[in-house]
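Narrative of accomplishments. A recurring question from our advisory board has been how the design workflow behaves on a single, concrete structure rather than in aggregate. To address it, we present the structure tokens for one chain from the evaluation set, followed by the sequence designed for it. No filtering or post-editing was applied between the two.
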């Protein structure tokens, strides 16, 4: 019994020393755990702030004057340029958001949320939705921006009463429906050549149609030069009146093709006046 008491009494200081030395160890571990927790919280705060800044930057970088829509199709092919000949470099999937930037004829330039910019055909944008879920319609080109105040230059080739004809014209569009033209035509035939100089008014009742009809009324002079190797006569100059109708189709905002039928009525000094029918096909370039 005395031995057991001596053992406990002798061991007591050792236990005290162990407690004293182990105390700081536990405190250091606790502090280390606390420091790690603080670092994790700091990292989470930094990540949250970074995400907030990124979202703010994205909002700041949203294109101005552009309509934000959501893709409703299964997918939309985005081309590098406004044409089928350009490669497809990105595919916008269902539910993806895109911005409509601008339109060129029947192509629309878009920007995706992933900062991919390219061109989409108007026909591929039939199922897109606005920010409130409403369906958005991208109108097909009606060339309504070909309006008044334009000069345009025309070139045509056709048949002038059996002779080959080449014509040029310079026009000014006063309004969307009315324009004035200066016309010059050179016709080369087997028996005679003709030079026709005319001033005409062109009325286009439906200018915003893709294929638009028009009517022509005008007057001028027709100079006929007989072929001297066949008929020995002098040149003849006659006043001419014209009336015609045609069709114009716009290929772009600045380029149009037209076909025209014109009836020229020559007021000659002979007993009977002469009537000449002209068919021609040409194009107009808006300056």
């Amino acid at each position: 019994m005395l031995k057991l008491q001596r053992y406990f009494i002798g061991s007591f200081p050792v236990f005290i020393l162990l407690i004293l030395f182990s105390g700081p160890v536990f405190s250091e571990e606790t502090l280390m755990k606390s420091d790690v927790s603080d670092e994790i919280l700091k990292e989470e705060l930094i990540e949250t702030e970074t995400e907030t800044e990124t979202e703010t930057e994205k909002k700041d970088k949203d294109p101005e004057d552009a309509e934000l829509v959501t893709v409703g199709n299964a997918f939309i092919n985005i081309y590098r340029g406004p044409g089928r000949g350009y490669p497809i470099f990105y595919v916008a999937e269902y539910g993806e958001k895109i911005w409509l930037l601008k339109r060129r004829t029947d192509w629309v330039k878009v920007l995706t949320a992933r900062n991919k910019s390219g061109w989409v055909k108007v026909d591929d944008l039939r199922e897109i939705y606005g920010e409130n879920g409403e369906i958005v319609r991208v109108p097909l080109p009606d060339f309504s921006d070909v309006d008044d105040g334009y000069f345009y230059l025309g070139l045509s080739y056709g048949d002038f009463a059996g002779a080959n004809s080449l014509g040029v014209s310079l026009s000014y569009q006063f309004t969307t429906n009315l324009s004035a033209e200066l016309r010059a035509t050179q016709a080369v035939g087997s028996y005679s050549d003709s030079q026709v100089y005319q001033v005409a008014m062109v009325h286009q009742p439906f200018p915003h149609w893709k294929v638009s009809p028009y009517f022509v009324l005008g007057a001028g002079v027709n100079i006929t030069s007989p072929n001297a190797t066949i008929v020995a006569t002098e040149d003849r100059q006659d006043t001419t009146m014209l009336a015609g109708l045609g069709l114009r189709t716009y290929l772009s905002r600045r380029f149009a093709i037209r076909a025209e039928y014109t009836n020229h009525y020559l007021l000659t000094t002979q007993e009977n006046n002469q009537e000449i029918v002209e068919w021609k096909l040409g194009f107009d370039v808006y300056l």
